[in-house]
Specification:
The chain is of the alpha/beta class and 264 residues long. 35% of the residues lie in helices and 25% in strands. It has a single domain, classed as 3-Layer(aba) Sandwich (Rossmann fold), CATH 3.40.50. Helix 1 packs across helix 9, helix 3 crosses helix 4 and helix 5 crosses helix 6. The chain starts with a helix and ends with a helix.
Length: 264
């Protein structure tokens, strides 16, 4: 693992910022997108991190990351993608959700904050499917995104979707993924996508973290992404699977902070 001065500084000193929190809705792909925003108190502008949750999840799963980044002087916005999960407070059903509807939701957020004087730049953070969506959107509008942080990005979804295609080229009306029902549009959005060719359009700095025990999204998918991005670093997290836990999760936060501090 790469150890920079910023990393050791982040480990030694945690800035004590109080934060103002607000919740709001933004019009999105399938209705309104629920968001939680935390902004440090004090003089800005602050770099903004938009945290994109994984499949079937919500902003609750990355709340500790948001609090950590805010305590170190970054603003953090955590949306619930429309139809994104069973605990989502946004509109929409999971059977209508796809990576493209989530990309539409994320684009709506970026558009909202791009000219907001509270923020100096916008960075994207995403885990699993959220990492897929973050990198997809960053490649669509590279000038608007200062940096990408991706945890075990689920590029495997393209191959998974191809495996669901029937002999006649169509997809079942509904299916199952990780025990949750999805609609036909979910696989249709993925099956013909050249995701590695697409993300190559993003030439900003990228940090990828991936556990060496991940069986849901094999590490090989992140190694291939490392070749696609122009300026990327891959950190392999020993003993971690799909979803960082314990000391590995805390180490991930510190390394991500160090990376973002260098960008700032």
């Amino acid at each position: 693992m790469k150890r920079t001065f910023a990393y050791h500084f982040a480990c030694a000193v945690l800035f004590s910022f109080a934060a103002a929190e607000e919740t709001f809705f933004v019009p999105g792909s399938l209705g309104n997108v629920f968001c939680v925003m935390k902004v440090p108190e004090g003089d800005g502008p602050f770099p903004l991190i938009i945290l994109c949750h994984g499949f079937g999840e919500s902003h609750i799963g990355n709340r500790d990351y948001a609090d950590f980044f805010v305590s170190n002087g970054f603003a953090a916005c955590s949306p619930d993608f429309c139809g994104g999960g069973i605990f989502s407070r946004s509109d929409g059903k999971m059977t209508d959700m796809s990576v493209l509807t989530e990309a539409e939701d994320l684009n709506a957020l970026i558009d909202r904050f791009l000219e907001d004087p509270r923020f100096s730049c916008i960075c994207l953070w995403g885990d699993s499917q959220g990492g897929f969506v973050s990198s997809y959107v960053a490649a669509c509008r590279p000038k608007d995104i200062a940096a990408l942080v991706l945890e075990y990005p689920a590029y495997v979804l393209v191959d998974s979707a191809k495996g669901q295609r029937r002999a006649d080229g169509t997809f079942p009306e509904t299916g199952w993924l990780l025990g949750m029902r999805i609609g036909r549009g979910y696989n249709e959005a993925l099956a013909d996508m050249d995701i590695y060719g697409h993300i190559a359009s993003y030439r900003g700095p990228v940090l990828i973290l991936h556990g060496d025990k991940d069986r849901l999204v094999p590490l090989s998918y992140s190694r291939r992404a490392l070749e696609a991005f122009e300026h990327a670093e891959l950190i392999v997290m020993p003993g971690q699977s799909h979803g960082f836990t314990g000391e590995g999760r805390r180490e991930a936060m510190k390394m991500e902070l160090a990376f973002l501090e260098e960008i700032r």
